[in-house]
Amino acid sequence: MPAHGSATHGSGDHDGTAEGRQMTWRPTAGQREASRLWDFMSWAARHRNVRATDYREVWRWSVREPAEFWDAVREYFGVIGEGFQGPALAEERMPGAVWYPHARLNFAENVLRHARDPRLADTTAVVSVGEDDTTSELTWRHLAARVASLAAHLRRLGVEPGDRVAAVLPNLPEAVIGMLAAASVGAVWTINSPDLSVPATLDRLRRLEPKILIGVDGYRFNGREFHRLDHLAEVEAGLPGLRHTLLVRHLEPVPQPGAGPATSGRLDFAALVADDAEPACLRLPFDHPLWILFSSGTTGTPKGIVHGHGGMTLEALKQTGLNQDMGPGDRYYVAANTSWMVWNTLVNTLMSGAGVVTCAGSPTHRRKDRQFEVVALTGSTMFATGAAYLSLVEKAAAEPGREWDLSRLRSILSTGSPLPDSTWRWVHEHVKRDVHLGSDTGGTDICSGFIGSNPLEPVHLGRLQGPQLGVAVEAWSEAGERVVGEVGEMVVTRPMPSMPLYFWGDEGGTRYRGSYFEKFPGTWTQGDWITETPEGEFIVHGRSDATLNRFGVRLGSGDIYAALRHVPEIRDCLVIGVEEPDGGYWMPLFVVLDDGIRLTDELRARVRATIRERTSHRHVPDDIIAAPAVPVTHALKKTEVPVKRLFAGHDPDTAVNRGSLANPEAIDWYVEQARRLRTEGRPASGAN
C-alpha cells in the first residue's frame, strides 16, 4: 500500500472554476497516484477486472454493484474473519438488507491487528492532550494489551455477548480502551459525556439495562475542574440492573486520604487494564450489535441507533482509508464530545492504521484557535471540526498558519453545518493555502458520511466534492423524482452496510421505518436539504427536520423542553435553530408564559440556568422571546419544522400547511417575527 503521513500537498489553485466557482484545492498527479484509493482502483483492475480511471467511475461501480464493491473493500483491506463466501449482499432491500449471512468477525480484532504488524506495533496509536499541553501516548502494542486485560476482567465480571457496557466518560484514551474491550467480548457499547445532565443521561441508559458502567471522577474544561462523583452516583442509582461500576480516576489518579466512601464499591479502571492477558476477540455474526448511538431526541425520547460489527468494520475502512486517505503514518484529531457520533470516528480511524488524538478540554481554551495549537502539538495530518468553529476563529481574525507549525496537516474536514464561502477562503489564506479543505455531511444514523471529500478530485468554493463511495445519494423532489440544480430532499437509493440494524426497543421496526422510509417507501430519506450541481458536486442547505445543530453538535429540542418543565412560569415553548447566511447559527427559544407573568431578566436568567443544569451549556438558547402561543398539529405535536422554514426565509404559503394545525391562528405571529428578522435583523440580546 502507498505510504502516508508525508508532508506533500496538493495545489491551492484559486483560479479554476466550476459553474463560476473558485477552485480552492486540487491534488497533484503524484498525490492522486500515492493515495490509497488509487491503489485500490489498481487492485480492483487486477483482481476484479474493474477498470476505473477516476473517482466518478469507481463511485458509479460502487453503487451499481454494491455487493461486488463492498466485498472488494473487505478483500483489499484484508478483513479478519470467516464465512465470507457467497454474495456480500445476500438480500437487497431497505430496510432489512442482509449482508454476509454466514460471516463471523469482530470489530475490535480488526482494529487491533495493527498491534501485530511489526512495522506498526511500537508506533503511536493514541495521543492524549491536556489543557496544559501535557501529552501521553499509547503504542499499538500497549493499546492492545490494555484492551485484552480489560476484556478478560469483563468476562470475569460476567459480561456475555449482547450485554450492554455503558460509559459516562469524556474524550480520554480510557474511552477508546473501554469500547474496544466491550466489542472484544461481544458486549454492546454506548457512551455519553459527563457534562450531560443526570436525567438526560438516564433517558438514554436506563432502557438499555447496562450490566457494566464506566464512569469518571471528573474532568477539566476551560481551566476548571468539574468533579463528577456525585453525578455518577445519581446515574448508578437510576440503573437498577447495574452489576459493577468501573471508575476512571482522571482528576486524582492516586486516591486522596478519606476518598474511600465516594468510590467504595467501584472497581479501579487503571488496575483492570494493567494485567497480562492474551488477546481474545470473540468472532460474531456480521450483524451482531456493536454499539448504540443516540439521536438528538427532537421529537421525544432519543432513538437508540444500533450498528453492527460487520457493517461498521467495512464502513470504517472505506470511509477513513479510501475517501479520507488515512493510513499508517497519519494522525487524526477532532475535539469530539463523547455524546456525539464524531467520537466514534476516532475508533473508526484506528481501523485504517492511522493514529488518533484524544482531548477532553475546551476547544477554545486560552484562545479561539486552540484547536490549531493541538494540531501542531500532535503533528496531526487530518483535522475534523465543525464549520461553526472555523467561522469563530475567522471572526477572531486569527492566523493559525503564522502561529503554529502546520506542516504535517494534509486535510481539514468541516462538518456539522454548511461552511460559509468567507470561511472557506479564510482557511486557505490564513491556515494553509494547500490544505485539502472539504465539507462533509453525514449522520449518526450511519456513523459516517453521505457526501464529502475524496483524494482524486478538485474542490470548488462552497461545494462538497461528491457522494462518498458506496452511497447512492440523490436529491429528490416532493414527488419522489431526482432533481439536479435545485433544492431537494437527500435520499439514498441502495443499501449500505452501516445502515442501522434496528432501533433499541423498537419492536417490529415501526419507529425505524418511520424515521427513514415513510416519505419514500424503500428509499432512505435523511432529512437534509441538498442541491446536486450539474457537475455532480453538492450543496447542503441544512436540516429539513427540526434537529438543532449548534457548534457542529446535534442537540435535541426534547431535552430543552424537558428541562423547562421545571420552570413553572412557562406554559409552553418552542426552540429552533436557524443557519444564517454568514455562517452563524441562531437558536431562539420562544416561551408562552402563564397569565400575568412577564419575561423579566430574572426569569430569563433562571430559564438559562435551568437548561444548563438539566442538559448542557450547548443547549442554552441565544435569545428567549415571549410568544402568544405555540402552533401544534392535530396530534398536538409542536411544529418546529414549519417555524424553522419561516425563519430560514421560505414563503409562508409553502412553509406552513395551515390545514395541519390545530391552532392555525398561532402561526401568524411567527410569520410576522420572521419578516421582522429579515428586515430588522435579530432582536437585541434579552429583547422580547
Strand order of the largest sheet: 7-6-19-18-20-21-22
Flag low-confidence runs: 1-9, 12-17, 258-262
Number of helices: 23
- Using the alpha-carbon principal axes, give the shape: globular
The description of the largest β-sheet is: 7 strands, mixed
Helix content: 25-40%
Q: What is the straight-line distance between the termini?
A: 61 Å
The proportion of residues in beta strands is: 15-25%
Class computed from helices, strands and strand pairing: alpha/beta
How many extended strands?
38
Please give the radius of gyration in angstroms: 24 Å
Quote the average pLDDT. Answer: 90
How would you characterize this protein structure?
- This protein has about 700 residues and is of the alpha/beta class.
- Helix content is about 30%, strand content about 25%.
- The protein has 23 helices and 38 strands.
- Strands 7-6-19-18-20-21-22 form a seven-stranded mixed sheet, with helices on both faces. Strands 9-8-10-13-14 form a five-stranded parallel sheet, sandwiched between helices.
- A hairpin with a 5-residue loop joins β35 and β36 (about 585).
- α6 packs across α7 (about 175-185), α8 (about 200-205) packs across α9 (about 230-235) and α12 (about 310-325) crosses α13 (about 340-350).
- The longest helix is centred in the N-terminal third of the chain and has 17 residues, at about 140-155.
- It is globular, with a radius of gyration of 24 Å.
- The termini are far apart.
- About 50% of the residues are buried.
- Residues about 1-10, about 10-15 and about 260 have low confidence and may be disordered.
